[in-house]
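=== RUN LOG ===
request id: a7f3
mode: sequence -> structure
chains: 1
length: 355
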Amino acid sequence: MNSKDTSNLATQTAAPLTSEQRTSTSQPYSRAKELLRSLLLRPEIVPLVLLVLAFIGGSLLSPYFLDLRFLLNNTSTYIEIGIMSLGMVFIIISGGIDLSVASTLALVACIAGITYFDLGVPMGITLVLALILGGLLGYVNGLLVTRLKLPSLAVTLATLALYRGLANILVGDDSRPKLAWSRDIVFPDWFVGVNQITLIGIPVPLFIFLLLAVLLGLLLHKTVFGRWVYTIGNNKEAARYSGVPVEWVERAIFTLAGFLSGLAGMIMVSRLSVARYDHARGWELDVITAVVLGGVDIRGGRGSMLGAVIAFFLIFVLRTGMGVANVKAESQLFVIGVLLILSVIVSNVMNRFRR
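=== RESULT ===
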């Protein structure tokens, strides 16, 4: 090789990279960085991280947290919160809210108890009627919101008191079956103790919750109806001008929430073998917390079913851990309230980063 060739080779070796070469070199890094950023900004990340931390904290409080059977069995204690939160996902994404879900649960439970014990209706028919009643109570909420053009917050705040008060009027401070009745007067054996039955090793209430989460997740994320819900949450007027049947969708999702509350009510009656007016008192806070903590924007238009499911398990672990630590119910409400405030703050911060 002569000196001229050597000089040309050195020049080529020392030549700076072109802009195209620099772009192609940095592309994999940029893609990885963007992928990591989008992953960290997913609404499910925060509740997932908190769930891991809560589980670690619970395992330090009690070795039972390392026992899968213990955790599976205890999910039934709060499974009604999870079932009601599935319907709440649709309502909050649409820009509304339903404060009456826990009161709907209690009213359905009490009327079911009266229907079976006082009216003598067979339990199978009572169960079906209870689910229909739950849907009707939700439909009433939707009708008041859409026909009277009232805010869902005001409507469901009113029905929260109305449904709970009606349940109290119907059964009083007693229950169904009444405490004074013979111990032989009880719900039928096939109906009682649903939390003691397992399918593929999973308690039936948890199995129902997971199945509903999958089906409703598909409805929300993979169908035209789900897209309508998101569109309404982003801009109701624009959705109306785009041909979305806004009022019909809103009535449908309130009916769905009522139906799920009725289902939760019957699961609670089966689990506790009694119907009382104070069932699930205060649980609307847990339901809303599970949804908002799961990444659903409280202003509507954003969120996922998966995030709400993860957040429910977070609340379950926190509630179970505080129960193991003998934390009073009032203090537990304080923790849930703080968690709700933090979830709203985190949601706002993450929304700014997404923009």
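=== NOTES ===
The chain is about 75% helix and 0% strand.
The first strand starts at residue 198 and ends at 199.
=== END ===
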